[in-house]
Amino acid sequence: MGLLRRRQSPAVARNDRKFVGRTEPPHGLQVVAAKGSRVRDVRGRTFIDFQMGWCVGNLGWNPPEILSRVQAFKGPCYVAPSDTYEPWSELAHRLTKIAPGNLERAYRCVGGSEAVELALQLAISFTGRHKLISLEDAYHGNTIGARNVGSRDVDVRLPGMKKLAQPLDEQALSRLERLLAPRDVAALIMEPIAMNLNVLIPDTAFMRRLVELCHRYGTLMIADEVACGFGRTGKLFASEHYVLEPDLMCVAKALGGGVAPIASTLATAEIADKIQDSDYEFYSTFGWMPLATEAALATLDVWESRGDEILDNTAERSNQLRRNLEAIFPDAELHVMGVAIALELGDEERVQQIERRCRDRGLIVVPEEDALMMLPACTIDERTVHEALGILESAAR
Ligand SMILES: Cc1ncc(COP(=O)(O)O)c(C=O)c1O
């Protein structure tokens, strides 16, 4: 509470407590403005943001090219899901063009959990199977289906959920084969590079075998790119690191450029065609609202016109961060892929202490049990990273 009182105006804190539904008290700032890699709080202090909404603000906050498009938007505020709307076809077409593999249809969703839920349902409907496999301790969202393939507390346990524990090695592949062999598993879902498992980076040989096993036993592969998509890991999609061709892929978060909520589940034509001919029905009332669609189209325009430059910057900042973090925290285990960074300190109290000191000195990092997560924007500049590293160095002492 002390922390809350210092950072929030008392009335806002009181009303938040009284009216805003939460499962834990707020521990962040009272944000009043954001631009690029910085946020400003109600007291006028600015902070470098190494959280970026957990992979929402990959292009920085309030990106002018996207914001101006949304502000100038003159189209309809709403179109019913059963109608057609030209920007929907454009967005769907463009998503399928940039997606890995043979994903040829894009379904309209609002957020990541919905996109994951839909992918699971499509897999179950397409295969006629009911079992699902995911990585142990993964996170895939907050619906009952997503919580069941995730490993957080869930009150409703669905049957047929199987978990693959780390390490992701030969033995894990043997366990996976035993799970798949009865041919009753609809899908395996994973983040190709797992933001929610402290930036877990499976090796290429493991991923190749995993895909082969899925193919052999008729199990669909779902790539959850909700957090790792759109440049976060140094490629547009994390699947590209493995030349992965998923059967279904979920995108959300950074698709809206940090300006609007929008998400999609992408599917192969084979899956989408069979689903269309089946009894399975899906629509989402607010899926791809026109304003959100405009934000996503503007986001794709940024990636199309400046994608190479942004990914070059991501690689440079990634090296800068890795080099310096190795020097500042020589005893920590560091996982870095693009601007997805987990610093495993192995000590929860020390993580909390460093996070608090960073915040007091103007840097937001994310404590995750015994690790510090850092998720800066792909567009962050060298000087801002340098400044953040200075704060981290002083906080580590
Ligand atoms: C990998 C992954 N999948 C799905 C989700 C759920 O997305 P949303 O919070 O938009 O429902 C998240 C959210 O953090 C996520 O990290």
Summed up, the domain count is 2
**Number of distinct beta strands:** 15
Mean model confidence by pLDDT: 95
The coarse overall form would be: globular
Bound molecules: pyridoxal-5'-phosphate
Radius of gyration: 21 Å
Q: The CATH topology of the largest domain is what? A: Aspartate Aminotransferase, domain 2
- Counted by DSSP, the helix tally is 13
How would you characterize the overall build of this protein?
The protein has helices at 2-7, 10-19, 52-55, 64-71, 86-98, 112-127, 144-149, 170-180, 204-216, 269-276, 290-328, 348-361, 382-396, and strands at residues 31-35, 38-41, 46-49, 103-109, 131-135, 161-164, 185-190, 220-224, 248-251, 263-268, 333-337, 340-344, 363-364, 366-368, 371-374. With 397 residues, it is α/β, with parallel strands linked by helices. It folds into 2 domains: 24-63 and 306-396, Aspartate Aminotransferase, domain 1 (Alpha-Beta Complex), CATH 3.90.1150; 67-302, Type I PLP-dependent aspartate aminotransferase-like (Major domain) (Aspartate Aminotransferase, domain 2), CATH 3.40.640. The chain has a 7-stranded mixed beta sheet with strand order 4-10-9-8-7-5-6, sandwiched between helices. A 4-stranded mixed beta sheet has the order 1-2-3-13. A 4-stranded antiparallel beta sheet has the order 11-12-15-14, covered by helices on one side. The two termini are 26 Å apart. The model is unreliable at 1-5 (pLDDT under 50). Pyridoxal-5'-phosphate binds at residues 54, 111-113, 116, 139-142, 191, 195-196, 224, 226-227, 252.
